[in-house]
Amino acid sequence: MRSLLFYLSLALPITWAACEKKAVVDIKQEKELSLDQKDRALIAASNRFTISLYSEVEKEYDNEENILLSPYSANVALSVVNNGANGETAKAISSALGYEGLSQEEVNTSHQKLIEGLPQVSAKNILKIANSIWTNDQFSVLPSFLQVANTNYHAKASSLPFVNPDAPNAINGWVKDNTNGKIEQIVDEVSSDDLLYVLNAVYFKGMWQQQFDKELTARETFIKANGIKVLTDFMKNTGEYNVLSTTRYQAVEIPYADNKFSMVLVRSADRNHILNFDVDLQDVIVKPQPLKRKIELVIPKFKFAFDHILNNNLKNLGMGIAFTEQADFSQMISGARAHISIVKQKTFIDVNEEGTEAAAVTSVGVVVTSVPMIETIKFDTPFYFLIKENSSNLILFAGKLNDPTK
Q: Is residue 25 included in any domain, yes or no?
């Protein structure tokens, strides 16, 4: 049996570097997203998949590791792949992605609308979504599959001689071009038995609406989950932010330049309470009803890379058949059986005084206080963060900072 080799997600939420002062965007003008009921159903499914996939991945790491995923990126790539699946394999992938009630055609149409529309919602921030397919020239992939991938996902197909040891250079070149050089390599080598690679890249670069004054950045203490204290740079800004306080957590939304994207930070309300991504972040995603308050916001600068193979996590979500010899990808290739070999994601994030990512906020037992003094909200213990597009509430990235010094 031939193997389908999918390096699905190259997800990059990038901050503005300190030397950059203006955004350079490759779009002519802003354009609002126009979403119908089916589009919003797909976005809701994508956000549920974010919760499910992140929760599965987090189980594999202790509280020492920083984590960053783009479940949206994996969702897009798997949706491309599902156009080649048939029977129980297609049902399993659709179920894992939460697409009950949506036809494959509706999924394709809604993804096309988001892929084309999301990069145009902001003239002051950069969001790029790119897809590509790399096929082994020894096999014939069905034109109908490639046509849908190209039309709905703008995934250009390129045929390569996988027997050539230089074949990975072309794939890695695409990766480097579509991540602004932040990720230079995803493939070490390819095998003559591999049928194809499906790649998705999501790149975000944004400037804060209220930038942090570099003169106020100072070394302060961050307390890790194990109680160990580390010194790191903390940024400070006093201004109005959307804040949600509950008995379990506190969430702060930090908007980017034109309020089209935002980052949400979520910390425990009590040092003795351990946040549950599956429960607490579900709140933040589903019911964003924050209160705008003037606060002193104190957050650490951080920068890290992360990579993870998603095979076991996707199997746990019900996609197991797609990785076995019982897989049916007859809508992708005829005359041979194929299955998914690997699903890999690489990510990188850089947060500094000038910018970073996007957000979501929530409402559970909101506590309103009318104290005439400015409250300080300091993220000096491990916290989750989300990045979202605000008009659709689509989550692009989800992560956790356990140690800003790593």
A: no
Say which CATH number the domain at 234 has: 2.30.39.10
CA angle 392, 50, 196 (to 5 degrees): 105
Q: Cα 254–11–327 angle (5° rounding)?
A: 135
- pTM score: 0.89
- Written in H, E and C, the secondary structure of the chain is CEEEEEEEEEEEEEECCCCCCCCCCCCCCCCCCCCCHHHHHHHHHHHHHHHHHHHHHHCCCCCCCCEEECHHHHHHHHHHHHCCCCHHHHHHHHHHCCCCCCCHHHHHHHHHHHHHHHHHCCCCCEEEEEEEEEEECCCCECHHHHHHHHHHHCEEEEEECCCCCCHHHHHHHHHHHHCCCCCCCCCCCCCCCECEEEEEEEEEEECECCCCCHHHCEEEEEECCCCCEEEEEEEEEEEEEEEEECCCEEEEEEEECCCCEEEEEEEECCCCCCCCHHHHHHHHHHCCCCEEEEEEEEEECEEEEEEEECHHHHHHHHHHHHHCCCCCCCCCECCCCEEEEEEEEEEEEEECCCCCCCCCCCCCCCCCCCCCCCEEEECCCCEEEEEEECCCCEEEEEEEECCCCC
Are 325 and 263 in a shared domain?
no
**Is residue 142 located within the same domain as residue 279?**
no
Q: Is residue 55 part of a domain?
A: yes
pLDDT by position in tens, the chain (length 406): 555 555 444 555 554 433 333 333 344 478 999 999 999 999 999 999 999 999 999 999 988 899 999 999 999 999 999 999 999 999 999 999 999 999 999 999 999 999 999 999 999 898 889 999 988 888 888 999 999 999 999 999 999 998 888 888 998 898 888 888 878 888 888 887 788 888 888 888 888 999 999 999 999 999 999 899 999 999 999 999 999 888 888 899 999 988 999 999 999 888 766 778 877 787 777 655 667 889 999 999 998 988 898 999 999 999 999 988 888 999 998 877 888 888 888 888 888 888 543 221 111 112 222 334 577 888 999 999 999 999 999 999 999 999 999 8
State which residues form the domain around 215.
208-301+366-401
Indicate whether 389 and 331 sit together in one domain.
Answer: no
Q: Are residues 140 and 230 in the same domain?
A: no
